[in-house]
Amino acid sequence: MMKIQSAEFVTGAVTPKQYPKTFLPEVAFAGRSNVGKSSLLNSILNRKKLVKTSATPGKTQEINFFEINRRWMFTDLPGYGFARAPANVRRKWQGMIEQYLTGREPLRLVVLLVDIRRDPTELDLQMQEWLEHWNIPYLLVATKADKLKQAERARQLKKIKSAFDPEGRREVIAFSCQVNLGRKELWAHIRNALAEDLEPEKTA
């Protein structure tokens, strides 16, 4: 796993003009409201309160940027699919996310989170389809894996894999902040996505 020497909140943004003026490589985290993005980020960064968590779905309404080790960025995207949010707010969130994903040049990977206890929703599958349409690399992570016993966890992972990838070629990582499950595998994929940027500079 990566050694985290520094992790700092940079800014929240709703338009490209508000994005950090940096070209550090980025990894974005996306998923439905209350899927556990903030908890996952705190866990893999070994920080308890860097990313604010809330029991209220849909609370994150900005794209939050975090600078990691002064070498790359993580972005926490607003959760989608919160039914109680007004329609105009949901449209605003959708536009904000699409604008970021299609126009952010430093973006290297999207980590798409789903709740392992729930079958993938139409919105989850639409997000996958959208990422593939725009050729954006992504990784599927099933959160809250500690909530299920091992046999049920295996069954749910199989269902999630089947929904997203009937041909069985794409990996789904089971993740839990509580029992330290999946962190090593997740970091391996992040390191791979950032491989060129993590290599030391070469001198002539």
Question: Would you give an account of this structure?
Answer:
This protein is of the alpha/beta class. The protein has a single domain (about 5-200), classed as Rossmann fold. Helix content is about 35%, strand content about 20%. The two termini are about 30 Å apart.
User: Tally the helices: what do you get?
Assistant: 6
CATH architecture: 3-Layer(aba) Sandwich
Shape: globular
Order of helices and strands: EEHEEHEHEHEHH
The spatial strand order of the largest sheet comes to 1-3-4-2-5-6-7
State the end-to-end distance.
Answer: 30 Å
Oligomer: single chain
Helix content: 25-40%
Strand content: 15-25%
Rg over C-alpha atoms, rounded to the nearest angstrom: 16 Å
The count of β-strands is: 7
Spans of at least 5 consecutive residues whose pLDDT stays below 50 are 54-59
Mean pLDDT: 87
CATH homolog superfamily: P-loop containing nucleotide triphosphate hydrolases
Sum this structure up briefly.
This protein is an alpha/beta fold and 204 residues long.
What structural keywords apply?
seven-stranded mixed β-sheet, 6 helices, alpha/beta, 204 residues, single chain, Rossmann fold
